[in-house]
């Protein structure tokens, strides 16, 4: 299997490496929300606020400076080398490579199950119900065969809708706060 590349030639592994850092994800999230280039200070304020879970107005100058320096010296040059942003020491803008990058993260809260495991379990449940129907151990007097089929299809349909909505919510650049 060959290496898959984004439109700008960045490999999938490179994209995952870029996005493995929370500050870079926050940076891309903020830049995707803005239509015009942003000043480094403005970006640093928002990244710091998200990272520290504070309002921008509550940030200290030390907190702002720490994030500003980190973005300026490490994260923005990394994103620029990957051709995701253009950066001229004070102004940052997403490139078409990043704008075309439909990135969402399969963020799974600690008390949750990954979607793949969820669908596997749902399929196992459906398999057990269908096997029970074939073996005539699942009652069909109270719920007819078509009713069981409707229930199973309904479970998958509702699950798929929730999954799509959750993935949209987890995309970088969507919502007020980054995923």
Nutshell version of this structure?
The protein has helices at residues 12-19, 22-33, 40-52, 61-81, 96-100, 115-134, 145-169, and strands spanning 38-39, 85-87, 91-94. It is mainly alpha-helical.
Task: Walk me through what this model shows.
Strand 2 and strand 3 (91-94) form a beta hairpin. It is elongated and about 70 Å long. Helix 2 (22-33) packs across helix 3 (40-52) and helix 6 runs antiparallel to helix 7 (145-169). The chain has seven helices and three strands; from the N terminus they run H-H-E-H-H-E-E-H-H-H. The model is unreliable at 1-5 (pLDDT under 50). The chain has 179 residues and is mainly alpha-helical. The protein has a three-stranded antiparallel sheet with strand order 1-3-2. The protein has helices at residues 12-19, 22-33, 40-52, 61-81, 96-100, 115-134, 145-169, and strands at residues 38-39, 85-87, 91-94.
